[in-house]
Amino acid sequence: MGDELSGRDDMKALVGGYMTAFPDMKISVESQVEEGDMLVTRFVAEGTNTGEFQGQPATGKPVRMQLITMTRIVDGQIVEEWEEGDLLGMLKQLGLAS
Questions:
Q1: Phi, psi angle pair for 87, to nearest 5°
Q2: What would you measure as the largest C-alpha separation in the chain, in angstroms?
Q3: How far is CA 98 from CA 19, 44, 53, 56, in A?
């Protein structure tokens, strides 16, 4: 959902940004499917925007966003992951897009 990330540090920075913006974030796994070295997960993330998000001040508004990830796992390690999420819908909920 944006720039390509590479490695743990990039992932930590991404997750840290979301946790700063939505410190009460709850993630619920709705379903998972595994085939070979691939794992597909459909989940919902919910939280209240009480911190800065993408350079914008906190709105105090709650959001609910659905996401799907495809993760490739080799020898117990995540080696690739692709995400699709309704970022535009989340921005609309925050009043940052129309």
A1: -65, -40
A2: 44
A3: 24, 22, 17, 15
Q: Alpha carbon of 43 to those of 57, 67, 92, 97: distances in Å? A: 26, 5, 19, 23
Q: Which two tokens stand for residue 18?
A: 């979301």
Residue-wise pLDDT tens digits, 31-40: 999 999 999 9
**If you search the block for the tokens 């619920």, which residue do you land on?**
28
At 70, the pLDDT band (50, 70, 90 cuts) reads very high
Neighbours of 94 (CB within 10 A): 19
Identify the structural domains of the chain with CATH numbers, from first to last. Answer: 7-93 (3.10.450.50)
pTM score, whole prediction: 0.80
65, 85 Cβ separation under 8 angstroms: yes
